[in-house]
Amino acid sequence: MHLGRLLRALPLALFLALASSCANDLTEDFAGKFCNRSHACSSGYRCDEATLICVPEASAADASAANASTAGASAADGCEDGSVDCDGQCVRLASDPKNCGGCGATCSAPPHGVPICLNGTCNFACPDSAACGDVCVDFQNDPENCGACGEICSAPSGGHARCVEGECQISCASDRKRCADRCVDLESDPENCGACDKACEAGRVCSSGSCKTSCEAELSNCAGACLDLSTAANHCGNCDTACPSPNHGSALCTEGSCDFECAEGFEKCDASCIDIEHSATNCGACKHVCDAPANGAASCDAGKCGSTCNVGYAKCGGACVKTDLDPANCGACGAKCLENEVCTGGKCTSNCAAGTSNCGGSCVDLATDPSHCGDCATMCNGAPHANAVCQSSACALACAAGYGACNGGCQTFDSDVNNCGSCGKVCASAANGVALCSGGQCALDCNSGYVDCSGKCVNQSSDPKNCGACAKTCGSGEVCEGGSCALACGSKTNCGAACVDTTSDTSNCGGCGKVCTPPAHSAPSCQGGKCQFSCQSPYIACDGTCVDPRTDVDHCGDCQTACKASGGATAICSDGQCGLSCPSGKSSCKGKCVDLDSDNDNCNSCGNKCKGVLGCLLGHCI
Q1: pLDDT band at 240 (very low <50, low <70, confident <90, very high)
Q2: For residue 189, with 0-12 CB atoms within 10 Å meaning exposed, 13-18 middle and 19 or more buried, which class applies?
Q3: First vs last Cα of the chain: how many Å apart?
Q4: In angstroms, rounded to a whole number, what is the distance separating the alpha carbons of residues 582 and 532?
Q5: Contact, 590 vs 612, CB < 8 A?
Q6: Does 208 have pLDDT greater than 90?
Q7: How far apart are CA 432 and CA 445, in angstroms?
Q8: d(CA 46, CA 44)
Q9: Which CA distances in Å does 106 have to 52, 92, 98, 118, 323?
Q10: Exposure pattern of 74-92 as b/e (b: 16+ CB <10 Å)?
């Protein structure tokens, strides 16, 4: 059977299995039935805390021993073998996503996913999509996972990226023309002046689609492009200012000031374009941040906050727990072990089994438990696109599909020039060019006026070793002038047999040998003998460098905003908005990382304040 049809059929099959497993007439004898969530039974019975089974008041100890192996699942309780009574319903704890591993322990799933319970452990399936880490994605249409997990479609300046049938495509704005993988303005681009690949000669500019000696009076010369600085988004107000273009939006320049507009379905939130129907940090309205439980994640659906639990954890109220280990939810939601008892295998006992250690009432394997790795106090922290794991008592990361381990995190290697194709593989840069990484392969993008000759960016109009064409060398005593070998440079300056204009040549800016070296993610220019640079979209210029305002924690959304965090949290910048990432075992409540087991203002769930004398203990107000 096709996997998608199989998963869609799962709920119906599960329902039929549950229906057939329950007896039609429930006996009024409460012996052997599960206690309710308040640990209460009918008159004449008491709840055995070790097994959470209702037993006659006179024989609690006997019932505990008799039912230890079956946790109360027996034919005597009105349910068939293999199923148990949870609040009057016969369920199979091994497969019921609403009672997974224990009564009331509910499995959750990310958007477009379906919660499932496998052998008493929560997981999820993606019936009509694919799982990438802890999310369900559409490989056919998702530009962040196009064709495979982590395959990102990069948007060019002046255009948008999209994923069509698993292949990346770009679309250009109405005033731009697609030339190869770029969206260019044929009216001003000196490399594509009037038509794709029609480059202006060195020293000439592109104005109104034609190569000329100078720009019209109302236009400014920005590295050979004649532009109206009052409307040019990449050179807004001056040649050096590129307006940031947020995800799902387009940069604008109005009267020399930067702005942006959002695509349909997205709204402006600070410097970002946000889908407030599904953003957990802007749910229903800008800056409305949804709370995130420990071992889970915040979610937003139709503008309403919610949460999902990590794989292996179930929801008990607002918390994500493991009912086989949690002494506050041992074997079932709300089933609290007695003082001096521990939880192991979903049962309250007096001691932990051999090979496990008592950590706060949970019996865990210190060699493999990421919440208690090596010792009870060590929690392993996850990372974007990764889950925390504990291997041989040492913390590590398990990267999501499509991502690889690198420099303490998990990332893709398809577009990072410092890790191109594999971790640590750096794409070599070259003078007068910018190193690129595309599809995991290194490439070279030469500056305007330069071409790639055997891995070097050269100006064929002046380079005596590549005069007019790659490897065409001028003879002794000759110079290269205008792409031809000659005897003299005329009005230009002779710099090592290269005839150049030192007012505009980036290799000889203001004098021979003075090379313009721009910061990363930018292109240089020489204006009046002085070096300048312009950042390449989506990067913007901040304090002499080019930064990505969508992800840079020190320049989040703009040059002035630095993300901050406290209380053990890590500051993050996502889509140009500041947020935080809590360490393992901590929950995010109103923008703060807290421990729901001990925080008096957030006991067991965000916002639940304790009024008792002793405060919050193991998620209970005492």
Answers
A1: confident
A2: buried
A3: 53
A4: 41
A5: no
A6: yes
A7: 9
A8: 7
A9: 18, 13, 4, 13, 11
A10: beebbbeeebbbbeebbbb
What's the pLDDT at 246?
A: 84
Rounded CA separation 446/452 (Å): 6
Q: How far apart are CA 260 and CA 363, in angstroms?
A: 54
Confidence band for 512, pLDDT divided at 50, 70 and 90: very high
- Dihedral pair phi/psi, residue 456, rounded to 5°: -120, 145
Enter the tokens of residue 31: 């012996």
CA atoms within 13 A on the CB side of 265: 7
Angle (nearest 5°) at CA 369 between 368 and 372: 125
For residue 51, give the nearest of 28, 30, 72, 20 by alpha carbon. Answer: 72
Residue-wise burial string across 524-536, b where 16 or more C-beta atoms lie within 10 A, e elsewhere: bbbbeeebbbbbb
The number of residues in the chain equals 622
Query: What are the extents of the domains in the chain?
Result: 3-125, 433-542
Q: What is the pTM of this model?
A: 0.66
Are 506 and 487 contacting, i.e. CB atoms less than 8 angstroms apart? Answer: no
- Is residue 347 helix, strand or coil? strand
How far are the Cα atoms of 54, 185, 579, 609 from residue 172, in angstroms, in the given order? 69, 10, 32, 53
pLDDT at position 41 is 59
Q: Which residue has the tokens 């490897």?
A: 471
pLDDT in tens, 432-456: 888 888 888 898 888 777 888 988 8
